[in-house]
Amino acid sequence: MNVLVINCGSSSIKYQLFNMNDESILASGLVEKIGTESAIITYDVPGKEEKVVTGEILDHREGLNKVLRLLMNKEDGVIQSASEVAAVGHRVVHGGEFFSSSAVIDSEVRQAIRKTIDLAPLHNPAHLLGIDAAQIQLPDAVHVAVFDTAFHQTMPEYAYMYPLPRVLYQKYKVRRYGAHGTSHKYVSNRVAAVLQRPIDELKIVSCHIGNGASVTAVENGKSVDTSMGMTPLEGLMMGTRCGDIDPAIVPFVIAKEELTLSEVNSMMNKHSGLLGISGFSDMREVTEAMFSGNEAAKLAFDMYVYRLRKKIGSYIAAMNGIDVLVFTAGVGENSAIFRERVCDGLTFFGIELDHEQNEIRSKEERHISTKNSKVEVLIIPTNEELMIAREAKALVETA
After folding, report:
1. pLDDT of 9
2. Least buried of 42, 137, 241, 332, by fewest C-beta within 10 Å?
3. Is residue 284 part of an annotated ligand binding site?
């Protein structure tokens, strides 16, 4: 069975075609600058030279049509006809309270995605564009929506509710939803597989640390708490986002700097975090500057690590224990010094890092804790696209 996974932005389509018989990637790429005369399509088939095509692409439908033509190209195509695509898995950022699992897309699902646009105004409209385009281009395929928020719908009410007037929840569904759920689910399942232990016997703290970052408490295979909230702004300090702050800062800064709500929202989302403190949003640049003696970079790094350690500690308390600490995503997978500083502040919980294993640069799944560590510490490279493909395949097989 072939499954096409697409992740649509307002002017982009990220795609991967999987052969789900062995979960291999047949082709992948990106369509950028949709709506312009200088759009770019990258097309990559494993073992072959990447192809780059430029030209006018007016909308998502045309962009997806050109992707399908590449997939069926006589020279380096990987399928002979569109009918060979059995399912399309669509990444959807927000499913609100409507979805606790992935869903085959029908009129009711589309309507529910529309109803959550207020909760993800930058993402859900683009996802709907992608769904429209894909259903036109691939009418015979089963289309499946995989929601980043679905995994977190198992959080108990006391974890997802805010201590605000309850009427705000009743009228507008103001509550915590979380994000990166597809990644946290994939990583947690891989942890169980690597350790050869049932996931319903494990207490896992999953750290998805990239430019956007979140940490999730996964108990018995279910999300019981997560750091991102109603929006991806809450929680950890990130590349350009502030994460948790005193909410009274917002009206204070508005009054002092005479900013609009839009301007202060932009400040918190795009000009804060590592960037706001150090001037760098990329952890590699922050680390390099820190080791070169840049005090602002050192402060940013220390704040970043400290806030994650606090959150990990709170989730150990929430689950009354921990079996596994796992790192994933760009920073989590690639920064040895980051993992070292995080774990060195968690020795009270019995976490003991194997510094030699931690320093190894590899894209493989691996243990980085010692044999004497009371907590398993792992690096698991995330694979959200494969998780989406698996979800789509499962729904096709049960339809």
Report:
1. 84
2. 42
3. yes
Q: Are 241 and 268 in contact (CB under 8 A)?
A: yes
pLDDT for 143: 96
Alpha carbons 222 and 388: distance in angstroms, whole number: 18
Q: Which of 76, 132, 148, 244 is catalytic?
A: 148
Task: Report which of 79, 86, 15, 81 is spatially closest to residue 5, judged by C-alpha positions.
Answer: 15
Supply the Cα-derived Rg of the chain in whole angstroms.
22
Give residue-wise pLDDT tens across range 98-121. Answer: 999 999 999 999 999 999 988 888
User: How far apart, in Å, are the Cα atoms of 336 and each of 255, 355, 358?
Assistant: 42, 9, 6
**pLDDT recorded at residue 168:** 97
Closest CA to 227 of 239, 213, 215, 242: 215
- The one-letter amino acid code at 192 reads A
Q: Is 96 annotated as a binding residue?
A: no
Looking at domain 2-147, its CATH class is: alpha beta
Same fold, 2-147 and 197-384: yes
Which DSSP helix (H) or strand (E) runs through 63?
helix 60-71
Is 84 annotated to bind a ligand? Reply is: no
CATH T-level fold of 197-384: Nucleotidyltransferase; domain 5 (3.30.420)
The ranges of the chain with pLDDT < 50 are none
The CA-CA-CA angle for residues 130, 36, 115, to 5°, reads 30
> What confidence score (pLDDT) does residue 173 get?
94
Determine the Cα–Cα distance for residues 19 and 191; give it in Å rounded to an integer: 23
Q: Which of 123, 118, 180 is nearest to 148 (CA)?
A: 180
- Which residue has tokens 């709506």? 35
Tell me whether residue 332 is annotated as binding: yes
| Active-site residue, 323 included | no
Other C-beta atoms closer than 10 Å to the C-beta of 291 total: 12
Domain boundaries of the chain, sorted by first residue: 2-147, 197-384
> What is the amino acid identity at position 151?
F
Task: Return the beta strands (E) in the chain as ranges.
Answer: 2-9, 12-19, 24-32, 36-44, 51-57, 85-92, 103-104, 142-147, 203-209, 213-219, 222-226, 324-328, 366-367, 376-379
